[in-house]
Design a protein that fits this description.
By secondary structure, the protein is mainly beta. It has one helix at about 1-30; strands at about 35-40, 50-55, 60-70, 75-80, 85-90, 100-110, 115-120, 130-135, 140-145, 150-155, 170-175, 190-195, 200-205, 210-215, 220-230, 240-245, 250-255, 260-265, 270-280, 290-295, 305-310, 315-320, 325-335, 340-345, 350-355, 360-365, 375-380, 385-390. The protein contains one helix and 28 strands.
Length: about 400
């Protein structure tokens, strides 16, 4: 009798544990369907700041929520890992009388998408154009274009000032020039992010034709030059943005001035980059003026996308996951003028491109087999859109 009762009790406890585990896993790992989409803009003309949309990933429906926050030239945005705060660079050359832009911190309302300003600090260089978080979410890294420098800012975690930007923990002034006398007369930091393991930070400097590599201290937010301290691009290339392959074996640099993509191998143990090859991001028949803007690798690792301002297209490439080589799929008109940043939605099914000079965001469907883009017919009206960021809603 005792043995039978004991066996029943064991069976009951086992079944309870499996049910609990299954329920927990389903709750934690189930895909979220509800998101907010934030749009950073330039405010010289009709825009007033950051705009918001509600996105239903189950139906692909995008609903406008209007102006989320009024702020000057929020040209690039970043969302902290808790999804509670949004950060924007204010791309200006003079902030409170100093040769600097600013960094603004906002609290996110998941209910209506509104953003409440927490605080604003100098970016430590003129015209900040990029911001991203390290993998711990403790530090925001900023590239100042005209200032030609990069800076790291701690994010306050204490209850009273949670989410506020603190004074910078690191600042590095770049120096030098390259061959383009108009665009490369001095350093122009255009992008900075930490590597996937958070041990290094890489900065793309358009003015120097270099990818500068720093050792990153995730406890203090300090940057120290790596050995070697940089990888070089072709003279006049003008590196703008980078994209890591999900395997972490390859890094792709989008070169603004030459409209090319350069493939590097990445040594995770040493933080070093070795150049493999370069490929044009433009059609062979195109002869006009063009500057490349944004680059992203699809989360599945099979495709790479890049935007062209002038040709007003999205270039799509397939990726050889063994060698890292790119093969052109095709070019797709963005149905607007001057495509800047674009974003792949959290499901990996859609690509949204921000056309700055035609004041629209166009939605494309990504073919999972070929990477080809098909317009969905959805177009969002936003003045001077330049940056797109999704936020999952609890």
């Amino acid at each position: 009798m005792k043995s039978s009762l004991g066996q029943c009790l064991q069976f009951f406890l086992l079944a309870l544990s499996l049910t609990t585990a299954s329920t927990s896993t389903g709750t934690n790992d189930s895909p979220r369907n509800k998101y907010l989409l934030y749009v950073g803009t330039y405010t010289e003309k009709d825009s007033k700041g950051i705009y918001a949309f509600r996105f239903d990933a189950a139906t692909n429906e995008l609903t406008p929520l209007g102006l989320a926050a009024e702020t000057t030239n929020p040209s690039f945005l970043a969302i902290d890992p808790t999804r509670q705060y949004l950060y924007a660079v204010n791309e200006v050359s003079n902030y409170k009388g100093a040769s600097s832009g600013a960094v603004s911190a906002f609290d996110i309302s998941h209910q209506n998408g509104k953003l409440s300003l927490l605080n604003q600090v100098p970016s430590r260089g003129a015209d900040p154009c990029y911001i991203a978080f390290d993998k711990t979410g403790k530090f925001a890294l900023v590239a100042n274009y005209t200032g030609g420098n990069v800076a790291v800012f701690p994010v306050r975690k204490d209850t009273q000032d949670a989410g506020h930007i603190a004074e910078s923990s690191a600042f590095v002034q770049h120096a030098g020039s390259s061959i383009d006398k108009e665009r490369q007369q001095g350093p122009h930091a255009h992008w900075i992010e930490t590597t996937p393991d958070n041990r290094f930070a890489i900065a793309a400097d358009l003015g120097l034709d270099r990818l500068l590599v720093y050792r990153f201290d995730a406890k203090t937010g300090v940057l120290t030059p790596n050995d070697p301290p940089y990888a070089s691009l072709d003279p006049g290339a003008g590196p703008r943005h980078l994209a890591f392959h999900p395997s972490e074996k390859f890094v792709y640099a989008l070169n603004e001035l030459q409209s090319t993509i350069t493939t590097f191998t990445y040594d995770r143990s040493r933080g070093t980059l070795q150049k493999l090859s370069s490929i044009s991001a433009l059609p062979k028949t195109f002869s006009g003026s063009n500057t490349a803007a944004e680059i992203k690798v699809h989360p599945g690792g099979k495709f790479l996308f890049a935007s062209n301002r002038g040709n007003d297209s999205l270039a799509v490439f397939s990726i050889n996951t063994q060698s890292g080589d790119l093969t052109l799929v095709d070019f797709f008109p963005t149905q607007g003028k001057t495509p800047r940043n674009f974003e792949i939605d959290p499901t990996g099914k859609l690509l949204l491109v921000a056309n700055q000079d035609s004041n629209n965001i166009v939605v494309f469907r990504i073919d999972p087999g070929s990477g080809r883009l098909t317009p969905t017919g959805q177009t969002l009206s936003v003045p001077a859109p330049v940056c797109l960021k999704f936020v999952a809603i609890e």
